[in-house]
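Closing statement on the zinc ion sub-project.
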Amino acid sequence: MIGCNCKVCSSPDKRDKRLRSSILVQSSTTSLVVDAGPDFRCQMLTNNVQQLDAVLLTHSHKDHIAGMDDLKAFTYFTQKPMEIYADAPTESAVRREFYYAFSDTRYPGTPEFAMNVITTDPFLIGDIPVVPILVWHLRMPVLGFRFGKFTYITDANRIEEIEKEKIKGSEVLVLNALRKEKHVSHFSLMEAIALSQELEMPATYLTHISHQLGRYEEIEHDLSPGIHLAYDGLTLKFT
Ligand SMILES: [Zn+2]
Ligand SMILES: [Zn+2]
């Protein structure tokens, strides 16, 4: 956090250095990211991502879309618009925020987006199956995504029973947990753990963690088996 000297912000542990939440999902032929926040450029450079076929958006908050201008690097090399998948409200926000990318007379070098408006119907990106899951961020609808045995949900504080069914059977759930104290639009640590247990997840990794939660080592130490804090650069493999 800018200007903060708390024990997390000043920690030497690199697992306490948290950029904005995002994931890269790769199969042997296809690569996609979920969200492209303000740290997107840095995340792509750090992880040496050479190929990106699509961007899935969870919702339109700035910490999830602000980095989309940097998609121009990928569209520059491929000379093709980047495929963007978003629900209708997020799609209109992207058109508003990045109006210049949709202009008839685009300035050279601006990114180009191919917008795909999605609902909760499953779809395919290359060989990666995607099942959208509707979750609630206070009053804002947000999409989580299930990819085979892996489910990613961020920026939620409530999930309806019917949508919970879509998560069941996942081997790994990534779920947001902001801090220990209750929050109006994010699950707290205890709420996230309770949901993971209710859904009988074999493994859960917590993400979208605030500096208010505490240091990685202290919190991880106290978590029960199968529940972990995620950290930047964490890689999970599925067969
Ligand atoms: Zn949000
Ligand atoms: Zn967020």
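Residues 59, 61, 137, 155 surround zinc ion (ligand 1) (CB under 6 Å). With this model delivered, the sub-project is considered complete and its resources will be redirected to Aim 3.
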